[in-house]
Design brief:
Shape: globular
Order of helices and strands: EEEEEHEEEEEEEEEEEEEEEHEEEEEEE
Helix content: under 10%
Structural class: mainly beta
Strand order of the largest sheet: 11-12-13-14-27-23-22-17-20
Number of strands: 27
Oligomer: single chain
CATH architecture: Distorted Sandwich
Strand content: 35-45%
Radius of gyration: 19 Å
């Protein structure tokens, strides 16, 4: 794996942002930036060995700062929604910043996606580091976080997450890359087929927040056990889809965290490109890009509108702090949070 470093720009706060380019022996290439520790580009071949960038992103740091859709970024401290922006831990009630109506979403107003991380090159790839001080966005404890990106010669993009805190706190890290296997500039991604290796999902209320009810996918538009085009059922008269303007739900992979398991396969039948997702996390959020609005323009002037890319976010279940039956995202003081997600690119 070859790794090169380049300057990417200066933020509004006068912070320098760097770009790292990882290339494997097959010519696959991943571009990362220190703003949000984000995936900027993913170049992988189709069945005819034509390389295309299949990750949505931007050309300038100014566009990243202007956008609120977490484009390719690491999400933290806690991915997804926390109902009413509060939780109880060790008998103490904590109030978080409310940035999604009354609710807390993806770490708050200034989450990990809006931070400039420290990066270093090592034998495994590029490691991004961030310290989140006690009280930031309302969270207890000072949290030290590391995310290492590795690009293998088997065309695997491996994300290894690590964190520890000096106090009990809440941690649920994920990556918010928008994928379009036909190419980032190719418009609607809904014709691509998706398979999710799960029999159940967490039902959402009208604010797209899990109610605590776990439902079977059987006989519903939520059933992706057999591969199907995403567009097949997305416009069904089904409350779960209507209230979230498409798919924005958590599928259950396991009742506990730690075991590496296959989560999903995305496939573009036209190009042959496919993406397999495996993870040690207990859930995966499939988000169908329901709120992309074309502003600002993406890389090379691409217009990213609704459904131009989809996210496959490995995670603890959303709103788990309100539902004790869900796997817990609580990280105890001086314990180590360690999880891995693997994106494997191939053709079929």
């Amino acid at each position: 794996m070859d790794i090169k470093k380049y300057p990417f720009g200066i933020t509004a706060k006068k912070e320098a942002v760097d770009r790292y380019v990882l290339t494997n022996q097959n010519g696959c290439q991943i571009e990362l930036i220190t703003y949000g520790a984000a995936i900027k580009s993913i170049f992988v071949p189709d069945r005819n060995h034509v390389f295309t960038d299949i990750a949505l992103g931007f050309d300038t740091i100014q566009d990243y700062e202007a956008h609120n859709s977490y484009m390719g970024a690491i999400i933290g401290r806690c991915a997804n929604r926390i109902e009413n922006s509060q939780f109880l831990l060790n008998g103490i009630s904590y109030s978080l910043s409310a940035n999604d109506g009354a609710n807390h979403l993806h770490g708050g107003h200034v989450g990990f996606d809006k931070k400039v991380w420290t990066a270093s090159i090592n034998q495994d790839g590029v490691t991004f580091s961030l310290i989140s001080p006690e009280g930031e966005e309302g969270y207890p404890g000072t949290l030290h976080t590391k995310v290492t990106y590795t690009l293998s010669d088997e065309n695997q993009l491996i994300l290894r997450y690590e964190a520890h805190s000096n106090q009990d706190t809440v941690v649920n890290l994920t990556n918010h890359c928008y994928f379009n296997l036909a190419g980032h500039q190719n418009g609607n991604a809904l014709q691509q087929t998706l398979q999710i290796f799960s029999d159940t999902y967490t039902e959402n209320n009208s604010q797209c927040i899990p109610t605590g009810v776990i439902s079977s996918v059987e006989g519903t538009p939520m059933d992706f056990r057999t591969p199907k085009p995403i567009e097949k059922d997305i416009n069904s008269s089904f409350f779960q889809l209507e209230n979230c303007h498409g798919y924005d739900h958590n599928w259950i992979l396991s009742s506990f965290a730690g075991e590496m398991k296959k989560a999903a396969i995305l496939h573009d039948t036209h190009s042959g490109r496919a993406l397999e997702v495996s993870t040690t996390m207990p859930g995966i959020q499939f988000y169908s890009g329901n709120f992309l609005d074309g502003k600002p323009l993406g890389k090379q002037g691409a217009l990213y509108r609704k459904h131009s890319g989809i996210c496959l976010e490995t995670q603890f279940f959303p709103n788990a702090l309100c539902h004790p039956s869900f796997p817990s995202p609580i990280l105890r003081a001086n314990e180590i949070y360690q999880h891995t997600t693997v994106f494997r690119f191939f053709n079929k």
